[in-house]
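Entry 12.
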Amino acid sequence: MSNDQHRNRSAITGRFINDAAAARWPKTTVVETVKPPAKSTPPPKPKGK
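Predicted 3D structure (tokens):
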């Protein structure tokens, strides 16, 4: 996927489509913004005695 963080989806079928197909049918294309993956945090340390 490119660095612009978007996906094209067909408004008719709901399937993802490539940029060329989105440019060909702009009236039936929805552009969705993709959130960057969340950074994983380490599990909390157990409180020990």
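Annotation: The chain has one domain: 1-35. The longest helix spans residues 19-24.
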